Every structure is written in C-alpha cells, then in structure tokens.
TrEMBL record:
Topology relative to the membrane: Multi-pass membrane protein
InterPro entries in UniProt: Cation_efflux, Cation_efflux_CTD, Cation_efflux_CTD_sf, Cation_efflux_TM, Cation_efflux_TMD_sf, CDF/SLC30A
Name recorded for this polypeptide: Cation transporter
Species in which this protein is naturally found: Hymenobacter metallilatus
Compartments it resides in: Membrane
Length: 308
C-alpha cells in the first residue's frame, strides 16, 4: 500500500489588484453622482441603478479582500491556508445582491404608485456616463473571468450594468419625448429582471461551491472513468472532488492496483495528467493491492458501482 500527496502551485492568473482598485474607485464616484442625480431628477430608474452599482462596489471590495486573504500562507491551524475565503466572499456577494434587489423593488413599486416628473436629460447624461465606466471596469476583468468565479462575478456585474445603463438612456429619452411618467418605474422593473436573471447562475454556482460540490466544469463520472482506465487500475473507492477556493480544486481517491510496479512514476504521471485533463491541482492518491473489507469507511457504494 502506498500513497502520494501532490499540490501544484497556485494558478498564474495575473494580479487583479489594480483592476479591483480602479473598479471600486470609479464606481464609488459614479454611485454618488447617480444617486444625487436620481434624487434631483426624481428618477427611480437612476436610483435603482445607483443602488445596484453600490452593491457592485461592495461586491468588488469583498472579492478583492478575499483574493488578498487567499494569498496568505498556510498555518498550523489553517492547513489549507485562507483560500476558502474566496468562496465565502462569493456567497456573501450573491446574498447582498439579491437583498439590494429587494430594496430597489420596494422603491420602484412606490414610484409606480406615486409617479412624478422626471428630468430626462439628467437621466440620459448620467446613464451614458455609466456605460463608459461600467464598460471600462468590465474590460479590466476580461482576462480572468474564465478561471475564477470571483473575477467572473465582477466581470458579469459590470457588463450587466453597462447594458442596464443603455436601457436607462433609452428610457430617459422615451420619458422626455413622450411625457409618459410610468415608463421610468417600468424600466426599473426591467432592470431588476435583467439583473436578477443574469445573476442567478452565479448564485447557483457559489452555493454549489459553498456546499463543497465538485466544480461545475468537472464531471465526477468522467474523472472516475478516466481513473479506472489508468494502467493496472482495477477499481477505486473514496473518490472525493471539492473546491479549496474559487480557483483550486482538490481530489482524494484510493486506487486498487494489484501488483502495480513503478508506483512513484505512476503517481507522478497521474497527478500531472489530472492537472491538464481536469485542472485538478491538489491531489492525494492512495494505492492499494485490493479493496478493503466490506463495510470499511466510504467504500461500499463505490464497490457496488464497479461490480455492476
């Protein structure tokens, strides 16, 4: 019986500290201007967009803090380090987003019940500025949005806000030229629907990560089939795949390899291929000559599956 533990270094995904800093600073200034303009212009669409942009500022700050915390070294008590903070930040960000949507919905209903004149040019001007700021911020995160749910969350939020600002510009123009005051809260409802719908996939993924489910891009059955196809492997049990952070995935497994020779070379190749086939960086593999006795921890279901 032999075992091996292997951990590749963290992925070289670039440093997004500058992007987070620029995004937070620009959006804070924009939120202040948009909120003031929304109150002056009496626009619920602007106020709803300002509220959502404020939640994005909090989201960027949490994601940035978690990213910095994840870089701290492991300790005696935190043996995996602090990388799990990125998952907790993503969960908190999703909760804050939907909480903000609830408050904005309440305000929009009030404006629909009590419509008031809207300053169209102010609405269009501020929303147009939002297109530039949110578009630029989304561009800052474009490189890392495929490999990290935190960065992808920032990217999607900013991209969504840019598109929403386009809608506010159109709405402001319609109210200005038609005088239909109900259009402003109606557009706010559309904004809420777009943001809620676009954020649902991110919320679902962060909940999965929080429950330590295998990351969305990894099919456990495919990993099991791949492991069973390795030279000399006749079975496996106790296969576990879970996220250490929003970027790093861990795997533990017991492989049955009767009379397996050159075990060290086998393990080196196995761990190298797991990284390139499935992007699993942290591997702990135990080699065994035979299955443990029936009833041993965690292996019964796996053995039945292999025999079927």
């Amino acid at each position: 019986m032999s075992h091996a533990h292997h951990h590749h270094g963290p992925p070289a995904d670039g440093n997004f500290s500058r992007a987070f800093g620029w995004g937070i600073a620009l959006n804070l200034l924009f939120v202040a201007g948009e909120a003031a303009g929304g109150l002056w212009a009496n626009s619920s669409a602007l106020l709803s967009d300002a509220g959502h942009n404020l939640s994005d500022v909090l989201s960027l700050a949490l994601a940035w803090g978690a990213t910095l915390l994840a870089k701290r070294r492991a300790s005696e008590q935190y043996t995996y380090g602090y990388r799990g903070a990125t998952i907790q930040a993503a969960l908190l960000n999703a909760a804050l987003l939907y909480l903000a949507l609830g408050f904005i919905l309440w305000d929009t209903i009030d404006h629909l019940r009590h419509p008031a004149p809207v300053n169209g040019p102010v609405v269009m001007g501020l929303a147009g500025l939002g297109i530039l700021i949110n578009g630029f911020t989304a561009w800052l995160f474009r490189r890392g949005q495929q490999g990290d749910v935190n960065v992808r969350g920032a990217y999607l939020h900013m991209l969504t806000d840019m598109l929403v600002s386009v809608g506010v510009v159109v709405g402001g123009a319609l109210v200005y030229f038609t005088g239909w005051l109900w259009l402003d809260p109606a557009i706010s409802f559309i904004i809420l629907a777009v943001v809620g719908y676009s954020s649902w996939g991110l919320l679902r993924e962060t909940v999965r990560l929080g429950l330590q489910a295998a990351p969305a891009g990894i099919e456990v059955a495919a990993v099991r089939r791949w492991l069973l196809a390795r030279p000399g492997v006749t079975g496996l049990h106790d296969l576990h795949i879970w996220p250490l952070s929003t970027q790093d995935t861990a795997l533990t497994v017991h492989l049955v390899r009767p009379n397996g020779d050159n075990g060290n070379q086998f393990l080196r190749e196995l761990q190298h291929e797991l990284l390139h086939e499935f992007n699993i960086r942290h591997c702990t593999v135990q080699l065994e000559d035979e299955f443990p006795l029936m009833g041993a921890h965690g292996c019964c279901d796996e053995q039945v599956a292999l025999k079927s």
